[in-house]
Amino acid sequence: MRLLLVEDDQSLAKVIQRGLVEEGHAVDHASTVADASEAVSINEYDLLVLDLGLPDGDGTELCEEVRNSGSGTPILMLTARDGISDRVRGLDAGADDYLTKPFAYPELAARVRALLRRPRGTAKPILECGDLRLDPASHTVWRGAIMVPLTPREFSLLEYLLRHTGQVCTRESLLEHVWDAHYDGLSNVVDVHVANLRRKLEQPGAPDAIETIRGVGYRIAEAAA
Ligand code: CA
């Protein structure tokens, strides 16, 4: 896959670029909004890794530019730890996912893989796994032919798990993506919501939809796939 990395921190860029190249990607690197903008106008990228704080402007400008051109290229943005408003602006501008700095390279690699797996050209596809179906547009969930009513939080939780089918989602990643990184309520909030979700998705004779990976987190059960 052809990737564009937009990052002005040269040492961080080097680490990311080396890693992604090792995974077999072709990686172009830009350090400014201007260079990145030129690169996307010339090349067709499969994915953008986009730092938001750039010397000549804001990465969200580039997000908007890419989306306004009608491109559905997945965009993973890199934001500061305390940058909630940045994240909101970035996602509103059309970014697909974000990673807060500092991060471990394997997590970036996993996010990139997940984004590259997504079907292209369909902004809001129905997510399916076995007899589970979730429609992000209409906010509905079915197990087989039965519609399952969920709370908004349970819905987000299931959506995140389904978007990461085949991967184990850690409690931390669920907290970060379904709640937010600054959630400081009950420490077992993820487990409580997963338990409720699992109960609602139960069907007589059908396997559990969500698997617990002890000490790590949760994933959509293979049996449901
Ligand atoms: Ca920066």
Number of helices: 8
How many domains make up the 3D coordinates? 2
Strand order of the largest sheet: 2-1-3-6-7
Overall form: elongated
Which fold does the CATH topology of the largest domain refer to? Rossmann fold
- Count of distinct strands: 14
Q: Tell me the helix content.
A: 25-40%
Instruction: Report the CATH superfamily of the largest domain.
Output: Response regulator
Class per helix and strand makeup: alpha/beta
CATH class (first level) name of the largest domain: Alpha Beta
In CATH terms, what is the architecture of the largest domain? 3-Layer(aba) Sandwich
* Unreliable segments of 5+ consecutive residues: none
Radius of gyration: 18 Å
